[in-house]
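not sure who needs this but someone in the group chat was asking about Undecaprenyl-diphosphatase BcrC from Nocardia aurantia so here u go. i didnt clean anything up, its just raw.
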Amino acid sequence: MNLDTRIFLDINDFARNTPWLHPIMSGYANYGIVLFAILLVAGWWIARRPASTEKMTAAVWAPIGALAALAINQPISSAVNETRPCNALHDIVVLHCNTDGSFPSDHAMMAGAVAAGLWLVDRRLGVLATLAALLMAFTRVYIAAHYPQDVLAGLGLGAVVSLAGFWLSRPVLRWLLGRIARTPMRILITAPAQSTVVQGNSR
């Protein structure tokens, strides 16, 4: 038995001993993508406040990077075609199972890409997204949909795709944002300036 399978079985034993966690872990593993969507919106909102071209460029790229990571993952997963643990192993706790390839994990790749993208927008938001990504990776193993190596590869590849894609696309995105800033659509990338009224003292 290799190390990857041994770690999976240890986590599966933890799942067996924590039935009260099953609804929470399964819910997050399957629908936690909603949280990442919220974090992406938060990144866009944060980037609008200081009217920073660099931050907004990163905020615009973050969701694109996540989609790019998922697109790149599909041919890799099909080529490797690794059998999921829920289909390959017996006498384990299974909370969710698919029949497509297991390596790398789609969910982990998306989470890793979002987390890396949001680090470029705001450090605190990046920390939150990283914690959410790590939890997503753990829950995908907990429900027996993936082996540990599947989610670790997904997190790493997702982050690499996001960061490399940002570096490559940054000139085009900055040009595009510059064009948008000169149109009525600039409200989407820049928060309206707040006017300050100064009242003098009358005597």
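also The chain has a mean pLDDT of 87. if thats useful
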